[in-house]
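User: Here's a chain of 138 residues. Predict its fold as tokens.
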Amino acid sequence: MSEHKPTRYTHNEEPLEDTPEALNLDGFDDEEHPDELRAPAVAQQVGFAGAVRLFYRHYWNSKGQASASEFWWALAYLLMGTVIYFGVTIWLNYLTLSENASSLLRTLFMLLVITNPLWVVVNIGPTLSLIKRRHHAL
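Assistant: Prediction complete.
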């Protein structure tokens, strides 16, 4: 038998590649600029698709400004999306009231009923940010 028993755990001087110490050695430091904030939004004249993109891009960014076109197109998107989403849910409700309604319609109705609050929750943040940015522009 040998006098020296090898140990199971070895200690390396170099940190593992996925630890914060290893990332700091590679030049990545999450505390390098702790006061760095998101840049303020710049008001742009955009169409419908651009307004929807900016609406979600500046999700919680209430700094900066929003142009009138961005504001009104985003509100039109919210109104249309909400009316369609809740309208389809109500329409499916009427279709599923009959006893011979298919299980697919009932399942789709239940899915929409469950996800309706999600639509509202997901869009509260960007709506409040958009209103605040539009108020800054005025």
